């Protein structure tokens, strides 16, 4: 069995493709190939209830593979059950990462990952820690299976009484996978608005989205360590940052939307709390909504844009600059204001390299959002600045929330969003590695003085 595995085109330390190609190129190519295959499948007659265009199929496949959830078609009416299952497979592969899935397949066949293969998988997972990747990959797939299974069972209990065994169990499967992978695809044109204020549904789907957004390495570590002091700095930053953002968003959302007749105004107190909790979660990358996003107050809309830009966790299916990146920037600012040269938290210092990487990540992501926004103002200026800005951030951060303009975009506007979703999924730094060749600099220059501020 092992004799032919090293000669597979993408794997094996003796493979010229692995040795001579930038891992970032292979990661980006894997997503691109999956998008093309997905578009071909979704365009098939057996996958649709009504004929769709190549533009519709390509946009939908891109949104699914990048686990964004922006839709130009109604998933329930335009796609058959077979087509919806294709969407689920694309979401699952896109969420986990096709390279990670391929690595698991080889591990199950008895093939040990070599140095080149591990480097490729690390790039695909955006994982830099030195550890047994084989163990981590297997642990990831076990966690994914167990969490989605539990989500399916809980959602079945909720949905089967309303929809019957067949439809209810199918909806439970669909929403479990979509929520855990932070994809945001729904089986109704109104997302979850018909179920607004439903506490059990809000808790289960919200929990799946939060767990999926923590990142696979955090989940794997939580499986082994439950004591706070025993956790890595990354996990503690991710968990504390997530809790702070959720609590802050929950409070602000309720304060700003409580009396808004277009959102929470018509619901009772219990339903308002359920919707508020759910909508504290979704802008981080989940993409579902229980109220009309286009009717949110300007204050909450602005907050959502910031939260979408921050995103979810590293190694997760969520996008954005990542919660830990945001936390490092906050801690670096605190260190500067305190007159300290090194940021620290939880009894650990943060290396300068990580600070610079966080700054680079945030700046590059901001430039990508601005470039996307600029392009959309050229292709679809009639849709309004705020709508386009919201759509641009949602696509770049692979969130999937929309103020209702996705279906009204022109063909050039769709292309802009597809590029934004693709770049958002592979990551800003991966894009830089695709376009630039890092060099090792052996010359150090004397420091100079620059006046800033």
Instruction: Sketch the major β-sheet.
Output: 2 strands, antiparallel
Q: What is the number of independent domains? A: 1
Question: What does the average pLDDT come to?
Answer: 84
Order of helices and strands: HHHHHHHHHHHHHHHEEHHHH
Assess the beta-strand content as a share of residues.
Answer: under 5%
The number of helices is 19
Rg, rounded, reads 22 Å
The level of helicity is 55-70%
Poorly predicted regions: 1-18
- Any idea what the shape is? globular
Strand order of the largest sheet: 1-2
How far apart are the first and last residues' alpha carbons, in Å?
Answer: 63 Å
Kindly state the number of beta strands.
2
Structural class: mainly alpha
Indicate the topology.
Layout lengths: L15 H5 L2 H20 L11 H12 L9 H4 L2 H16 L1 H11 L6 H11 L7 H31 L1 H16 L18 H16 L1 H9 L8 H25 L11 H13 L16 H13 L12 H15 L6 E2 L2 E2 L2 H28 L5 H12 L14 H16 L1 H8 L18
Antiparallel strand pairs: 1-2
Helix pairs in contact: 2-3, 2-5, 2-7, 3-5, 3-18, 6-7, 6-8, 8-9, 8-10, 8-11, 9-10, 10-11, 10-13, 12-13, 12-14, 14-17, 15-16, 16-17, 16-18, 17-18
Structural features:
453 residues, mainly alpha, two-stranded antiparallel ribbon, disordered N terminus
General description of the model:
By secondary structure, the protein is mostly helical. The protein has one domain (5-434). The chain is 62% helix and 1% strand. It contains 19 helices and two strands. A two-stranded antiparallel sheet has the order 1-2. Strand 1 (344-345) and strand 2 form a beta hairpin. Helix 16 (352-379) packs antiparallel against helix 18 (411-426). It is globular. The relative contact order is 0.10. The model is unreliable at 1-18 (pLDDT under 50).
């Amino acid at each position: 069995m092992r004799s032919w595995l090293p000669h597979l085109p993408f794997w094996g330390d003796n493979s010229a493709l692995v040795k001579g190609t930038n891992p970032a190129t292979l990661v980006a190519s894997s997503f691109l190939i999956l998008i093309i295959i997905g578009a071909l499948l979704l365009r098939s007659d057996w996958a649709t209830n009504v004929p769709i265009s190549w533009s519709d199929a390509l946009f939908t496949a891109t949104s699914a593979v990048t686990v964004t959830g922006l839709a130009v078609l109604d998933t329930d009416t335009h796609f058959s059950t077979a087509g919806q299952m294709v969407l689920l497979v694309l979401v699952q592969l896109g969420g986990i990462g096709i390279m990670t899935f391929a690595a698991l397949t080889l591990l199950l066949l008895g093939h040990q990952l070599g140095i080149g293969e591990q480097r490729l998988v690390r790039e695909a997972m955006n994982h830099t820690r030195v550890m047994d990747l084989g163990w981590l990959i297997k642990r990831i797939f076990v966690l994914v299976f167990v969490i989605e299974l539990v989500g399916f069972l809980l959602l079945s209990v909720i949905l089967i009484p309303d929809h019957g065994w067949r439809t209810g169990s199918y909806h439970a499967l669909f929403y479990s996978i979509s929520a855990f992978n932070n994809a945001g695809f729904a089986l109704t044109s109104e997302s979850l608005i018909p179920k607004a204020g439903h506490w059990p549904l809000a808790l289960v789907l919200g929990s799946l989205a939060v767990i999926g957004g923590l990142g696979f390495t955090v989940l794997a570590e939580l499986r082994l360590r439950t004591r706070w002091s025993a956790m890595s700095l990354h996990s503690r930053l991710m968990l504390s940052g997530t809790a702070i953002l959720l609590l802050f968003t929950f409070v602000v959302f309720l304060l700003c939307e409580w009396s808004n007749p277009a959102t929470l105004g018509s619901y009772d107190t219990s339903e308002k709390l359920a919707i508020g909790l759910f909508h504290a979660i979704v802008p981080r990358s989940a993409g579902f909504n229980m109220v009309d996003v286009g009717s949110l107050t300007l204050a909450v809309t602005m907050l959502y844009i910031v939260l979408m830009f921050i995103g979810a966790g590293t190694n997760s299916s969520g996008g954005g600059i990542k919660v830990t990146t945001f936390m490092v920037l906050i801690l670096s600012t605190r260190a500067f204001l305190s007159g300290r040269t090194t940021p620290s938290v939880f009894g650990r210092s943060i290396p300068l390299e990580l600070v610079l990487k966080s700054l680079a990540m945030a700046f590059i992501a901001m430039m990508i959002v601005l470039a996307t926004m600029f392009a959309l103002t050229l292709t679809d200026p009639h849709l309004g600045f705020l709508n386009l800005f919201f759509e641009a951030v949602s696509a770049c951060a692979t969130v999937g929330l929309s103020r209702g303009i996705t279906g009204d975009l022109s063909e050039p506007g769709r292309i802009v969003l597809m590029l934004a979703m693709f770049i958002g999924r592979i990551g800003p730094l991966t894009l830089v590695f695709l376009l630039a060749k890092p060099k090792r600099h052996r010359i150090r220059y004397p420091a100079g003085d620059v006046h800033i501020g």
